[in-house]
Design a protein that fits this description.
Elements lengths: L1 E6 L5 E7 L4 E6 L7 E6 L6 E5 L5 H20 L9 H18 L4 H19 L9 H12 L1 H4 L14 H20 L27 H14 L6 H18 L5 H6 L5 E6 L2 E10 L2 E7 L1 H13 L22 H11 L4 E2 L2 E2 L3 H13 L4 H8 L3 H7 L15
Antiparallel strand pairs: 1-2, 2-3, 3-4, 4-5, 6-7, 7-8, 9-10
Length: 406
């Protein structure tokens, strides 16, 4: 039955035995006091392994236990039963850890990190935490949403001034994205099969408002105002900070970068290209945990060059929009909102605050109105076609295909 015995095949293994009749390895671990045999079983049709103790020192008994477990796994697969198992809380904590890593890298704002962590710890883990995630049914999810809507009524001692007794539909729909993320994480790990995933959406209609982009008229008004505003005060420090904000806004509206991508952008990430009768600028941006390349018009590169002549930090690895000390900036949102106020542009649109992220929405809206197709736009913005269609469906011409650089 045994194909052979090896010694120290891995740092933690004292010896190993490969079984001939099945893809099973028995081994003893050097990192535990008990000398029981452990088994490592290759899951049929998968690259994954099941690892667990046989709980016996007897080699013959360990072989029988391992083979029995292997045949159990085959039966589970045949009957569409998940082989791996984890609690909902285990997977939810992995999501929290991922968001912490994104925050540490500078790819996720603190406010957003805190929202993920707070929502999971306050609502999802208390309700679902101890359940095996593959056993969670549609009835469980529906019961959760009833429980969630009454949470503040039933837990007044936890309520802060900003908490509502009854959450708005938009709040529930935002939170359900986290639930979807947790289920998808379990699917990726092979714990849940995709067709058995419950509907994560709350049973309330979410009336979506339009994104907080600037209209053509507002952007024109802002651009006109900035041209005089940025040179109105000639004191070096004031002039420098106003020029920086001016170029940041112009480049953002014409590239569609996310806010973390703006802050992470370095000079070596920016390049201009000529080929096949066209000229374009490329920005190799990174944020949201990954990198991608944005193609945009060469006027973006011209603005970059203009700003570089003024900037105090122009080495290849320096941040394009570095803070006064040369480091990665924390936020320019306050400066942007103050500028909108001075220019006479509303600080909110249909209930949504205007922030630097509004410049990305402005880019998307302008591109769609100019006839760029949703597939080209989604690719350039590193987002999903469904997101473009959902949030910018009001824009005329969104379904007309046109090259990105037209």
């Amino acid at each position: 039955m045994a194909a052979g015995i090896g010694h120290n095949n891995a740092p933690h293994q004292l010896e190993t035995i490969e079984l001939e009749s099945a893809p099973v390895t028995l081994y003893k671990r050097a990192d535990v006091h008990a000398k029981s045999w452990h088994m490592r079983i290759k899951v049929p049709g998968s690259t994954k392994y099941v690892r667990q103790s046989t709980k016996t020192n007897d080699l013959d008994a360990a072989k029988e236990i391992a083979l029995e477990r292997y045949f159990e796994i085959k039966i589970q697969i045949k009957n569409d039963i998940p082989v791996f198992s984890k609690t909902f809380g285990d997977i939810a904590k992995e999501i929290i850890a991922e968001k912490e890593r994104q925050f540490d890298r500078g790819d996720l704002p603190k406010k957003r990190r805190d929202w993920y962590r707070g929502t999971i710890n306050r609502f999802y883990i208390p309700f679902f935490g101890k359940m095996q995630i593959q056993t969670i049914s549609q009835d469980n999810v529906d019961a959760f949403w009833d429980w969630r809507r009454d949470y503040w009524k039933n837990n007044p001692e936890n309520k802060s001034i900003s908490d509502n007794h009854t959450p708005k539909p938009g709040t529930l729909h935002a939170e359900c994205l986290i639930l979807n993320m947790i289920f998808n994480k379990a699917i990726g790990k092979g714990i849940i099969q995709a067709h058995k995933k419950p509907d994560h959406r709350p049973p309330v209609k979410n009336v979506k408002g339009r994104r907080s982009e600037l209209s053509r008229e507002e952007y024109k008004k802002l651009s006109t105002f900035m041209r005089s505003w940025m040179i109105a005060d000639r004191r070096p420090r004031i002039l420098y900070s106003r020029l920086r904000l001016y170029y940041l806004i112009k480049i953002s509206v014409n590239s569609g970068m996310r806010v973390p991508e703006i802050y992470n952008l370095t000079w070596e990430d920016c390049s201009n290209h000529v080929g096949k009768g066209i000229e374009w600028t490329e920005l190799n941006v990174h944020g949201k945990g990954k990198k991608h390349t944005i193609q945009c018009k060469t006027r973006v590169f011209d603005w970059l060059e203009d700003w570089k002549e003024t900037s105090s930090y122009t080495k290849p690895t320096d941040y394009v929009f570095a803070g006064d000390d040369g480091g990665r900036v924390g936020s320019y949102n306050k400066n942007f909102k103050y500028l909108l106020k001075l220019a006479g542009i509303p600080l909110a649109y249909q209930g949504e605050d205007r922030t630097l992220y509004s410049l990305r929405h402005t880019y998307a809206t302008f591109k769609l109105r100019s006839g760029v197709g949703v597939y080209n736009l989604a690719d350039n913005m590193d987002t999903k076609v469904e997101m473009i269609e959902e949030h910018y469906g009001h824009v005329k011409g969104a379904d007309r295909a046109k090259a990105m650089l037209c």
